[in-house]
Amino acid sequence: MLKIENLKVYFKTDLGIVKAVDGVDLEVHKGERFTLIGESGSGKSVLAISILRLLPKNAEISGKIVFNGKNLLELSEEEMRRIRGRKIAWIPQSQSSLNPVLTVGFQSAEPMIEHLGFDKKSAFAKVLRIFDFLGIGRNRAKDYPHQFSGGMRQRVLVAMGISTSPELIIADEPTKGLDASKRAQVVGLFRRIEDRTMLIITHDLNFAEKLADRIAVMYCGKIVEVSPAKEFFNEPLHPYSKGLLDSLPSRGLKPIRGFQPSMMNPPSGCRFRERCEFASERCRREPPLFNLNGRSVRCWLHD
Amino acid sequence: MEFAFASEVFRSRIFKNNLCTIGFGIILFIAMLGLLAPVIADDPYKTNLAERLKPPSLEHPFGTDQLGRDLFSRVVHGARTSLFVAMTISLISMAIGCLIGAVSGYFGGIIDDIIGRIIDVFLAIPELVFNIALVGIFCVAYGVSTWNVILAVVITNWVSYARITRGIVLSLKEKEFVLCAKAIGARDSYILLRHVIPNAIGPIIVLATLNMGNVIMTIASLGFLGLGIQPPTPEWGQILNSGKNYITTAPWITFFPGLFIALSVLGFNLLGEGLRDVLEKRTLEY
Amino acid sequence: MLRYIARRLLQIVPTLLGISIISFSLLYIFPGDPAEFIVEARYAVEPTQEMVKKIRMEMGLDRPMLVQYLDWLSKAVRGDFGKSWTEDKPVMDLILERLPASAQLFFTTFAISIAFAMLLGIISAIYKDRAVDHFCRIFSLLGISIPSFWLGLILIWIFSVQLRLLPAFGYGGIEHLILPVLTWSFSFMAIKTRFVRSCLLEALSQDYVITARAKGLPERIVVLRHALRNALIPIITYFSLSISHLIVGSIMVEVVFSWPGLGSLLVESVFKRDFPVVQALVFISGVLFVIVNLVVDILYAVIDPRIRYGD
Fold it and tell me: What is the distance between the alpha carbons of residues C265 and C267, in angstroms, rounded to a whole number?
């Protein structure tokens, strides 16, 4: 359904070129919940937002993003606009993504009015049904975002995203800034809409474990591993994936040594080699993505 | 070392910034005219009734006024008057304003409450209204003199410096490095010199530059109303004032001094805006 | 909400007192006897001992300063600023006579300036760093740099002297209003244009704008409904604050066009040494500023849903 080929997103800044996404290939299949994990600054949010072509003006994008057979990067702005919110919905982070001066009901109704030709009244009626379904409560539709808790705002954003029954939903860090009990609720929330194709961006491994069908790990602008979720959590292939899992409190709270390198001049060869305990001479060359029965990994150990 | 590097970066940024360069160029041009006035222009006081209200010519590039005085020399000498008076006013108000603002912010408490109130009061009364009232009263009380203008404008003008300095000092007071310095027992004067002044200098330079433009405008306005620097001393606003009676027959008397007011105010505004861009760039672009 | 209003009301009391003290003391900051000035101003003769004494008694100038101040203040708050020194009329009558002209000039300028400031501000925000934006920036820099009295005289020269299209001065018809309004608007809208631009740019950089774009809304709706609606709160606040220019914001324009408003009254009174009028205008313009600020603060609280429902 969504196929990304050799995607590169570079930002030109005063200090140099930031290679936020540097040659990414991945594929999201219909009906699956595909989860992209990585630390903050790994480029995963940039990747997500580049699918909708909403990058800031100083970004340069190349490669292919094929959605239902069409390369999104070749569409006109008007064609792209008709895909946003209609075919591909975006569920942003909840902190400040809602407009403070419009009611949540109206904001949730907007995509339907714009894309499905609903009038205000019928769109609002549908919003009330969705609000009920997601446990927001229909009486809150006329309220303003600041009257909601973080978790509730997340629900409103989900309501906004699913209202047009899009083919693909991209959710950006749905659990960011929420405490543990709220995070559990978000898991429940996303289970309610699990029949849809989703691309979930998160750094929250527990959340990913509970929801994901397949997992991709991003490190320093590159995908280093793609595996089915179960296998990933049982036996991660890439040393970085291992490091991530080992740093979880439930698995020993062992942090990965060193720091994420600068995105302006990442190390040559494998980008993880300076922090990797298995690094050897051959890691100076960039490893390709190796395929191992349904999983892929960018590491010479699996050559 | 670090400071030298920073100033190097700033200097290159300041001159890369078009606004700064153009503004600085305009100011330099007018300042040079003023400085060189005795060399490049005739006596601005010499009247010649035979040459009254003559349009611009080779001999009189800006024409002559109602008393046959050469307008070019009056306008060029006017640059001296405006810049000198404006600078005097700015420096005095800066000194008073920064001192009051720093004291208010630094010591806080009741002193800050009182000074804060006084600043509010001065901000509430429209500047030009206050200036006109003060100049009018000073004239009656002390007789006509340039010092009336200077005093009146300083009385309204120190406030903006006090407000900005107070704000900076208040926000710095909460910063860790100042708290640290206090904790290790640094003296007030040391903290003021080492921390407060280096941090305040940028915004104050921006303010002072923009303020020069305002002050020049105020002086010219008072001059135009006939309340400013009095004839025969050449001053742009006052030349305009006499020119308005001859607008039908000798529009050049109005045109040239006004052009110079506009240019010099523009120069300071450009430089001020440019400096603000440069000095605040770090916080604006990420 | 009521507590907020009450607190703000309490806050302005010291400021109002300060303004009244300054206005009152304007008459006493110079050495000499105000009674002598009154005699000079009113009768234009060398004051004699007797006349001075009479005036002093009549005006209550022989009382202690504090008593005089309290007396002046208690009358001033009721709109009684005493009698003019030069005309046989109460100060307030002189001011009320001139108010309509000032109001007419102000509100016309205000309406026109806001319309253009919004338009140009929105255009330059949308086309940031493009030619239109640079043009608007130059336009507003000129607006704050060109003295209005000079611009006014140039417009008189063009439209009255050369083209003979519009009157250079006078008051009454629309044709008299055009040049003064044009002159004042040029500077009045300058900073407002920049303010609209930066508020809108600020709003456009917020996360909710990305949300709106991600919904596939047309850019027009993203800008007008999502960004501008947020930007409007500070913009309305800022615009309303300029209502405090109503009384004497236009001094220079009024003088150039001999417009019979309060600005002209102020300048005339200074020349006639009619200081009670000057005193009253300083007081009123200061108080107006404070009150407009207060009202705008309260309005701000009313229109912003975040404050309206105060958490």
Answer: 6
Nearest residue in chain C measured CA to CA from A81: C216
Same domain, C109 and C58: no
Chains with 3+ CB–CB pairs under 8 A to A are: C
Task: State the nearest Cα–Cα gap between B190 and chain C, in angstroms.
Answer: 34
| ipTM over the 0.85 cut-off | yes
Buried-state track C249-284, b at ≥16 Cβ within 10 A, e below 16: bbbbbbbbbebbbbbbbbbbbbebbbbbbbbbbbbb
For residues C155-163, average pLDDT = 93
Report the pLDDT value the prediction gives residue B12, as an integer from 0 to 100. 64
Model confidence over B151-185: pLDDT tens digits? 999 999 999 999 999 988 888 877 777 777 777 87
Cα separation, C278 vs C22, whole angstroms: 12
Q: CATH for A2-76+209-302?
A: 3.40.50.300
Q: Out of C15, C149, C289, whose CB is closest to B126?
A: C289
Please state the domain count of chain B: 1
For the record, the structure tokens of A208 come out as 């990913």
Residue of C129, C199, C215 to mutate for A, most A C-beta atoms under 10 A? C215
- What's the domain range around C69? 2-76
For CA atoms C117, C119, C120, C124, give the dihedral sign: positive
- Whether B227 has its CB under 8 Å from any CB of chain C: the answer is yes
* Structure-token pair, residue C9: 């009301």
Domain boundaries, chain A: 2-76+209-302
| Chain C CB within 8 Å of residue A140 CB | no
Q: Classify residue C121: in a domain, yes or no.
A: yes
- CB within 8 Å: C255 and B224: yes
| Rounded Cα distance, B42 and B55, in Å | 17
The arithmetic mean of pLDDT across residues B115-135, rounded, is 94
| Parts of chain A with a pLDDT under 70 | none
Same domain, C118 and C206: yes
A254-292 pLDDT, tens digit per residue, is 888 878 887 788 888 888 888 888 888 888 888 888 888
Neighbours of chain B (3+ CB pairs under 8 A): C
DSSP string, A178-235: --HHHHHHHHHHHHHTTTSEEEEEES-HHHHHHH-SEEEEEETTEEEEEEEHHHHHHS
Residues C129 and C196 in one domain: yes
The CATH number of whichever domain residue B190 belongs to comes to: 1.10.3720.10
Q: Cβ separation of C311 and A85 shorter than 8 Å? A: no
Q: Does A83 touch chain C (CB under 8 A)?
A: yes
CB of A163 closer than 8 Å to CB of A111:
yes
Which residues contact residue A212 at a Cβ distance below 8 angstroms, ignoring those fewer than 6 apart? A33, A34, A35, A200, A229
According to DSSP, the β-strands at A168-172 and A16-28 are unpaired
Q: Which two tokens stand for residue A158?
A: 């989900």
What is the model's pTM? 0.85
Is A97 close to C211, i.e. CB distance below 8 A?
A: yes
HSE toward the beta carbon, residue B64, CA cutoff 13 A? 21
Q: How far is CA B112 from CA B119, B189, B236, B250, in A?
A: 10, 18, 40, 54
Q: Are residues C51 and C108 in the same domain?
A: no
